[in-house]
Amino acid sequence: xxxxxxxxxxxTRNQELVLGTLTASAGPLSAYDILDKLRxxxxxxxxxxxxxxxxxxxxxxxxxxxxxxAFVACADMHCHRKGLIAFAICESCGKVDEFADEVxxxxxxxxxxxxxFKVERTTMEIRGRCADCLAKAA
Amino acid sequence: xxxxxxxxxxxTRNQELVLGTLTASAGPLSAYDILDKLRxxxxxxxxxxxxxxxxxxxxxxxxxxxxxxAFVACADMHCHRKGLIAFAICESCGKVDEFADEVxxxxxxxxxxxxxFKVERTTMEIRGRCADCLAKAA
DNA sequence: AACGATATGTTATGTTATTACGCTTGCGGC
DNA sequence: GCCGCAAGCGTAATAACATAACATATCGTT
Lengths: 138, 138
What we know:
Two copies of one chain form a homodimer.
Chain A: H1 13-24, H2 31-37, H3 46-58, E1 62-65, E2 70-73, E3 86-90, E4 96-99, H4 102-115, E5 118-129, H5 131-137
Parallel strand pairs in A: 3-5
Antiparallel strand pairs in A: 1-2, 3-4
Helix pairs in contact in A: 1-3, 2-3
Chain B binds a DNA duplex through α1 and α3.
């Protein structure tokens, strides 16, 4: 049976290339960053990348960081899309930490229920400095 | 003494124009939307709008919605910048509801403290359908 | 008046994302 | 087999969002 880090097998060539690029990267990449890295593999147009990204994001294999206009591979291959995900983005090194918090999710649910708002998607992005960078700066 | 909805008097002409436009709008506006509305007032270049927006956002008089690449006037003239602000954006009518939640803020603080992350700025945006639009659709 | 800080106006350019169109591929039903 | 459909792909063009670089102006302070 399946184990931790396996990549779904039913990806198309472009989707695989894009996901591979994201996975190999230390930090978020813009669609155009990805495109540049994949020119050697035959990709030529932004749309090829955007289409692949759409699918990957749909499937929870990648995330879009709205405040960066960039993308990252999902950090946790187990729990795709299982709820609200928050991202902590370090302004110094660019690294992104992904985490889920049930309390926040629950709290949001309460707010929505109260106001009759139907939540479809939530983005939560924290900008700041990660512990490593703070240590280095000290 | 000052009361609820007064506009700060020390804004420059461009800042006033931009804030006025945002305040008059029912929903979020992109920088270019704003520019188009202000051509009659002599504005010609995107930068004039972006510069004004920068200041307004700095001062908490306007907010940037990252997931929309658009801007809104701050809904609450009293409590500018006093903490984490969440936005609920209706995909149907475009209206934006602005709210603060101390529990979420606190929870985020805890997470940050635990991991040694220094938070500088947080964006939280909920996409979905507002009560009004749900009622209409029913 | 001289200075610095802040704001302005303008042109050009850079970056991110989508529209439109046509071709190809895989697959189920007949 | 072959038709028809859905999904994917390739390409060109363009739209939408944002900033760089540079010159000028305005205002408060000394």
